[in-house]
């Protein structure tokens, strides 16, 4: 190449020209020179003809001639070296040879020679390009002279060569020529031609020229040209630059345009409209100005999407120029109406909702710069925005509604005229200011700009002042006409705009706490409600639409914990000084008045149902929580809502069926839709009472639980959200409802249980219908496949004992001789029959996936049987243990007459676990449950299996049983107190203090005979104190002979056997204890029957005696060491105390001491009182655990009801059960609540872990409370007592009062 002749250069020129001609379209379409270079660099990847170009062929041949031999030598050398070592891949060879070649001397010499020859060739081509360009310009001038005067508006067309030349290179000389031609002294045609040339050139080339700064100044000067076409051409160039150039180039254009506009507004020579004259947007000058503002605004909205990729200084320069322009203010000495409009008015016209500011504030990168500049240099921009809001509010107060109604109408009107009056401009600027301030308040640094000093006000304007102003704007300012707000996508009515801003602030927790959650703002929101309830003169100014907006804001506030606390208790929740009712009370009173139609102002209004619904929605956020429901109880909202629902449902039944062709069809249809929507809304409101235990009691009292549950199921089936402000789904509601007998019946009748079981069967047995047979299902790895996990947890939630008893109580299994493969279970009994109690070949053959399905059933059985009442029911009705033992017997492999081995598989291991669980009773230290997984090694399952009784004793741990410790001195002192004859009250308190002291210091001595004596004497003294007796004394004279022939339920009989087994294991009971316990339970039934009220109910649990086993009496019998007489005497004394209502559950079964509607609900006070307060305190004391329950779709009340009902059997060791009972007896029934809170605190880490693994329900029901001791949490429970006893104990004492 070094010796190439001139002919070679000519040949190369021809090759290059051919290459460029072939890729001309790609290059000319490139937005910049850099892009054109990228296209050429990657041409081999994008052009299929790349290797056919003569220039490429030439280069390949030249490389082959120069470097070919060296490359071959390197490859041979590398190959021989690698043969001696490990085998290498092709890529490694190429990399090595390429590297060696590029480092060689021959390669460097070749590149040098190529560079020299190509420089000669390219220089020659450029010279020719410039000559062609000059000739083309001369030709164009001749053509233009022949055209008419308007021909300059047409686009310039050039041939292919000149087009290519222009796009490929824009020379410095040409730019200087354009500068000269743009001079204002030049003829119009020359200036247009120069501008046309500039627009057709690549913007990157123009901006990279040395004369760019001078050109920019020329263009800025030319923007003031009176000719609109010329100005438009410049704006077109600016727009093209914004679109095609990188930020560091467009920043120059933006800055020049912003500075021009700033000078334009500051100049006295320009005719800028005033407020009094308004803006006529058909005026050419205004059109031109708006185009410039619009172009700037469009760039403002686009810039944030890419400026983070560039140095911060570029972004800061754009921000500062923008804020500088928007801060321009004209001379304030004139009247407001006569002063020229500031730039901000024009920006508000083109971007009313300040979208540019929203985008700039979105990212931290730009937000920091904006806030810093606002704070240091341009705070006046915020000040004027606040001032504008106050001015508009003053206008609303001063003028009548009909005079300013046009403000909101014009902004939403599609057929807008071409003139904006001064008032309209003020309103548009107000909307812009409102949106800007709303976005500013979201961020901490933005809120720090406050307080702000306004000239028109003496005091500083704080954040609270601004939020109060926003709130007042909702009900003082006019709204759009009714029924139009929904039709317009952009509703610019003041109330809608302010509500939108407040909604955004509510959704930002930190911002809401700082701005909204204070008494002043809440009072401002509630002011119109105050006026309406008092029916003052100010009331008519508040429209229905404004009330709906206010309710929406209040609902958002109530949906957050901090906001709800503010509404319930005010800011000074611990202060007694606050006498005025809090927000929750006012909202409840107003909602009740609306429901009872006790407000005359809105009578007959079409919007009244919407207003009602909006405010009940606020109440729903409040009464959907335990603490909120407690506050709203006095208003009996459930009764008012139920009354309104019944009235509405009657109306919906009376709507006539539309007749085809009738004129009234549309009106009737609309009316029916409105009534049906209102009916559903009311049902939804009632349903949300079920979110808490006490709320569920209120719901059942209304008699609408069946309709509410059906409504819930319909929404669930349609996969609709449970509620707008609810974070989680239907799980908690379903769990609460299923915890009661009536709720379980409602779930069954609604179809909910049917749907759940059908879905389960589809996942477990059938698979999806839409999956082709060619894609078989994968074999499950887990015992319960992931596809069935949700259904499994759903069944666990649905089947606590009250639900099980109602759904399967006194029902026989189908036990069919044959089951069709298409026969799908539809109820709980079918699940028991098909998946759990597989006692026939027909059942086994009916399952496609026998092992997987049966393991699912056994896992479900294991969870169900954790509830001992459910276990006894299933054992009594279906002999579950016998079925499992028979199945184990069939799983034995007989190797010889004397050797029998169990086949160890998934089913036998699972059955063994269930058998041990249901036959052995004991706490975490008293029994050992075999694992469900195999171990590594020679003996994968060392636990003995069995197929008959007695069970292996290895599953019972060797704990110290009934080891009576010698009486401690402290215990002697405590017993001595029972002999003292102090004043009754002082004596009781003294005993309680001594008990607490012992529980903290030496809890283990409170057991055995010492505990027996303590309880006996303490309860005796309490029962003799009138102030301590809650229930009246009942005379009971029956003897053993009187009750001997009475029968106990099969559940009670099995419970007796279980109790005696447990008592004998603990060395507390003897063999004869079974008869004595039977007599005790018979006496108890007769004793309690004397205090029961006659009742007729369809609920199975209310038909006769208590449905479950009496676990408290069984526990007490064991504490009394099997002494029948002592147990009965104790129970008669104990039954007079309040604690008996909460420890001894059968005590209040259909009791005449309860209100009739409470009896008919079938809900025990332990559920609607104890577990209600457990949930309430849990939310405050252990909030993470409370959140975990909601995320898991499980309610704390269900597991606590289980623990309390069976006196923590299987969950605590015996000594801890004794301490639980003794603590509640000595210290009061509210300690039942505190102990459960202490348990949840103890389990916090485990609960959080199992929430993540999505098996919280199973963990809480199956696992014992490892490591929990009542005494360890005594100090914590004393703190809970100090904080909550006044509320909790008062409510427990009110279980007999009608208005529970």
TrEMBL record:
Coiled coil: none annotated. Residues 174-846 form the BROMI middle region domain. It comes from the Eukaryota. The keyword Translocase does not apply. Its main location: other. The keyword Lyase does not apply. Residues 135-148 have a biased composition (Basic and acidic residues). Keywords: Cell projection, Cilium, Cytoplasm, Developmental protein. Residues 864-1295 form the BROMI C-terminal Rab TBC-like domain. One of its GO terms (cellular component) is cytoplasm. Interacts with CDK20, which promotes CDK20 stability and function. Interacts with FAM149B1; may play a role in cilium assembly. This is Protein broad-minded. It comes from Canis lupus familiaris.
């Amino acid at each position: 190449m070094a010796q190439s002749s001139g002919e070679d250069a000519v040949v190369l020129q021809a090759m290059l020209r051919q290459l460029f001609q072939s890729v001309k379209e790609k290059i000319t379409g490139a937005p910049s020179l850099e892009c054109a270079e990228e296209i050429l660099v990657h041409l081999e990847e994008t052009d299929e003809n790349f290797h056919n170009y003569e220039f490429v062929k030439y280069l390949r041949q030249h490389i082959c001639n120069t470097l070919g031999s060296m490359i071959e030598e390197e490859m041979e050398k590398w190959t021989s070296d690698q043969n001696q070592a490990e085998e290498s891949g092709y890529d490694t060879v190429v990399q090595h040879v390429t590297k060696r070649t590029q480092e060689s001397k021959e390669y460097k010499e070749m590149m040098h020679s190529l560079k020299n020859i190509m420089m000669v060739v390219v220089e020659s081509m450029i010279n020719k390009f410039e000559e062609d360009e000059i000739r083309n310009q001369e030709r164009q001038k001749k053509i233009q002279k022949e055209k008419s005067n308007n021909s300059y508006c047409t686009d310039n067309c050039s041939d292919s060569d000149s087009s290519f030349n222009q796009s490929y290179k824009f020379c410095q000389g040409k730019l200087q020529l354009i500068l000269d031609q743009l001079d204002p002294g030049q003829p119009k045609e020359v200036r247009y031609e120069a501008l046309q040339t500039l627009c057709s050139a690549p913007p990157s080339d123009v901006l990279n020229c040395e004369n760019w700064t001078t050109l920019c100044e020329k263009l800025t000067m030319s923007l003031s040209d009176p000719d609109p076409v010329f100005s438009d051409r410049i704006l077109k160039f600016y727009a093209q630059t914004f679109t095609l150039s990188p930020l560091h180039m467009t920043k120059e254009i933006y800055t020049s345009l912003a500075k021009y506009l700033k000078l334009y507004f500051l100049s006295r020579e320009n005719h800028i409209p005033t407020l009094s004259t308004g803006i006529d947007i058909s005026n050419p000058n205004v059109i031109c100005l708006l185009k410039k503002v619009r172009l700037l605004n469009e760039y403002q909205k686009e810039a944030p999407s890419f400026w983070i990729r560039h140095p911060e200084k570029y972004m800061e320069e754009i921000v500062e120029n923008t804020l500088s322009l928007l801060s321009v203010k004209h001379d304030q000495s004139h009247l407001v109406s006569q002063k020229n409009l500031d730039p901000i008015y024009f920006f508000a016209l083109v971007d009313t909702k300040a979208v540019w500011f929203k985008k700039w504030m979105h990212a931290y990168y730009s937000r920091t710069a904006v806030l810093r500049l606002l704070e240091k240099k341009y705070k006046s921009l915020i000040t004027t925005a606040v001032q504008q809001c106050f001015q508009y509010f003053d206008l609303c107060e001063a003028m009548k509604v009909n005079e300013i109604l046009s403000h909101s109408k014009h902004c939403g009107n599609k057929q807008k005229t071409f003139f904006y009056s001064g008032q309209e401009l003020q309103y548009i600027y107000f909307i812009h200011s409102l949106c800007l301030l709303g976005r500013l308040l979201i961020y901490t640094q933005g809120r720090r700009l406050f307080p702000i000093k306004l000239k028109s006000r003496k005091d500083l304007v704080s954040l609270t002042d601004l939020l109060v102003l926003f709130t007042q704007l909702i009900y003082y300012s006019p709204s759009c006409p009714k029924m139009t707000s929904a039709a317009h996508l952009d509703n610019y009515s003041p109330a809608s705009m302010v509500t939108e801003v407040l909604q955004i602030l509510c959704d930002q927790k930190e911002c809401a706490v700082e701005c909204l959650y204070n008494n002043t703002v809440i009072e401002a929101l509630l002011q119109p409600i105050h006026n309406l309830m008092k029916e003052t003169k100010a009331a008519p100014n508040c429209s229905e639409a404004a009330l709906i907006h206010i309710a929406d804001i209040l609902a958002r506030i109530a949906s957050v914990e901090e906001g709800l606390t503010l509404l319930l208790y005010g800011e000074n929740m611990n202060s007694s000084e606050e006498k005025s009712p809090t927000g929750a009370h006012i909202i409840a009173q107003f909602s009740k008045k609306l429901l009872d139609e006790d407000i005359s102002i809105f009578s007959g209004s079409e919007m009244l149902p919407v207003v009602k619904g909006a405010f009940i929605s606020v109440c729903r956020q409040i009464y959907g929580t335990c603490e909120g429901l407690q506050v709203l109880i006095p208003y009996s909202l459930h009764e008012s809502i139920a009354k309104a629902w019944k009235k509405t449902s009657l109306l919906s039944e009376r709507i006539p069926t539309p007749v085809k062709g009738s004129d009234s069809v549309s009106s009737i249809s609309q009316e029916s839709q409105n009534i049906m929507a209102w009916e559903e809304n009311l049902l939804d409101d009632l349903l949300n009472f079920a979110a808490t235990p006490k709320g569920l009691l209120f719901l059942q009292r209304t008699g609408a639980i069946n309709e509410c549950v059906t409504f819930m199921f319909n929404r669930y089936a349609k996969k609709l959200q449970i509620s707008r402000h609810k974070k989680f789904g239907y799980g908690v509601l379903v769990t609460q409802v299923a915890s009661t007998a009536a709720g379980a019946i409602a779930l069954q009748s609604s179809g909910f249980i049917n749907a759940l079981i059908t879905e389960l069967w589809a996942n477990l047995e059938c698979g999806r219908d839409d999956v082709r047979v060619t894609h078989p299902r994968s074999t499950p790895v887990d015992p319960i496949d992931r596809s069935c996990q949700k259904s499994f947890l759903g069944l666990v939630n649905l089947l606590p004992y009250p639900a099980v008893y109602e759904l399967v109580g006194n029902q026989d299994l189908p036990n069919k001789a044959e089951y069709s493969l298409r026969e799908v279970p539809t109820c709980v009994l079918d699940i028991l029959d098909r998946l759990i109690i597989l006692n026939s070949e027909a059942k086994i053959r009916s399952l496609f996936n026998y092992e997987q399905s049966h393991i699912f059933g056994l896992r479900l059985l294991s969870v169900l049987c954790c509830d001992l009442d459910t276990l006894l029911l299933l054992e009594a009705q279906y002999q579950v243990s016998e079925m499992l033992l028979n199945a184990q017997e069939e799983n034995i492999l007989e190797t010889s007459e004397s050797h029998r081995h169990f086949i160890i598989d998934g089913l036998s291991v699972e059955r063994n676990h269930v058998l041990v669980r249901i036959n052995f009773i004991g706490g975490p230290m008293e029994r050992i449950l075999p694992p469900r997984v195999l171990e590594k090694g020679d003996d994968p399952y060392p636990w003995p299996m069995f197929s008959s009784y007695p069970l292996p004793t290895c599953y019972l741990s060797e704990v110290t049983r009934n080891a009576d410790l010698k009486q401690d001195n402290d215990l002697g002192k405590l017993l001595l107190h029972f002999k003292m004859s102090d004043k009754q009250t002082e004596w009781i308190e003294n005993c309680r203090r001594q008990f607490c002291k012992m529980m903290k210091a030496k809890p283990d001595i409170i057991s055995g005979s010492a505990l027996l004596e303590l309880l006996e004497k303490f309860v005796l003294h309490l029962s003799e104190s009138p102030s301590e007796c809650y229930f009246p004394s009942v005379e009971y004279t029956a003897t053993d002979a009187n009750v001997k022939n009475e029968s106990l339920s099969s559940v009670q009989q099995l419970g007796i056997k279980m109790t005696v087994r447990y008592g004998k294991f603990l060395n507390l009971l003897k063999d004869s204890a079974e008869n004595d316990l039977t007599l005790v339970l018979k006496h108890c039934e007769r004793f309690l029957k004397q205090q029961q009220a006659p009742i007729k109910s369809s609920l199975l649990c209310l038909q006769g005696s208590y449905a479950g086993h009496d676990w408290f009496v069984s526990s007490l019998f064991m504490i009394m060491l099997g002494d029948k007489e002592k147990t009965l005497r104790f129970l008669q004394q104990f039954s007079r105390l309040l604690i008996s209502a909460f420890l001894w559950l059968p005590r209040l079964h259909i009791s005449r001491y309860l209100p009739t509607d409470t009896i008919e609900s079938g809900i025990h006070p332990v559920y609607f009182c104890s577990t209600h307060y457990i949930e309430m305190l849990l939310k405050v004391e252990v909030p993470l655990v409370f959140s975990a329950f909601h995320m898991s779709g499980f309610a704390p009340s269900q597991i606590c009801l289980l623990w309390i009902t069976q006196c923590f059997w299987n969950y605590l060791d015996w000594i801890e059960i004794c301490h639980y009972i003794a603590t509640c007896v000595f210290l009061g029934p509210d300690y039942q609540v505190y102990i459960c809170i202490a348990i949840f605190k103890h389990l916090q880490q485990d609960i959080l872990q199992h929430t993540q693994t999505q098996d919280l329900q199973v963990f809480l029901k199956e696992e014992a409370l490892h490591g929990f001791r009542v005494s360890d949490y005594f100090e914590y429970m004393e703190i809970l007592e100090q904080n909550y006893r006044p509320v909790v104990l008062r409510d427990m004492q009110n279980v007999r009062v009608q208005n529970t």
